Amino acid sequence: MTKWFHSGRRRDLCALLYDHGELRAQSAKSRLESHYDERIDPGSFYGTLTALVEAGYLDRHTEGIADVYALTEAGETALLDHYAWLGDRIEGGGGGAECGETEGGDGSGRGGETEGIDWDERGSRPERGPKRDSPDLKD
Fold it and tell me: How many CB atoms lie under 10 A from the CB of residue 18?
């Protein structure tokens, strides 16, 4: 796992963007504040966004006077990889896979997360969008 993902706020922000496709910065901040039930310092929040953009995990574009953010392919991959790792820890109980091994045994590197995510027949990531049958990552 890359260092950028050690931050819970970064993970949660990426999960929101995965769920919604794209969000204005203020909307994303408000949603996180609601989820955390506490105010987030604006400087810290915008620093998080900037770090994710600079690392290549988010795209930023401007609509009017608002900045709008969306996950890049790299951000989506990192989020889904973390989701799979977390699922293995929770559902699989950490099942004894050694470092670098997968429990799935199919060579995909996805371990046991295929039950929670609908991978296509080629083993590709699921399509991103607000309506999907995979687990809801936001709460």
Answer: 21
